[in-house]
Amino acid sequence: MWDTFLQAVGLMLVIEGILPFIYPGRWRSLVVQLATIPDNQLRWGGLITMIVGVCLLIAMSN
């Protein structure tokens, strides 16, 4: 189980690093824009992202 978890974390880090590697200027401006979004909207976005992720995990495990 730990092997799978570490593989998932590694894949997440690779995916997260693609945009700053390829488009550092655009990524920086995106981060600046994210800093202006109210906390409530960020929380909803995070919740939706987690729900989609859990649904994908459940779908892939069957």
UniProtKB/TrEMBL annotation:
Lineage: Bacteria, Pseudomonadati, Pseudomonadota, Gammaproteobacteria, Cellvibrionales
Residue spans crossing the bilayer: 6-23, 44-61
InterPro entries given in the database record: DUF2065
Coiled-coil spans in chain: none
Pfam family, one: DUF2065
Key words, A-Z: Membrane, Transmembrane, Transmembrane helix
Protein name, entry field: DUF2065 domain-containing protein
Source superkingdom: Bacteria
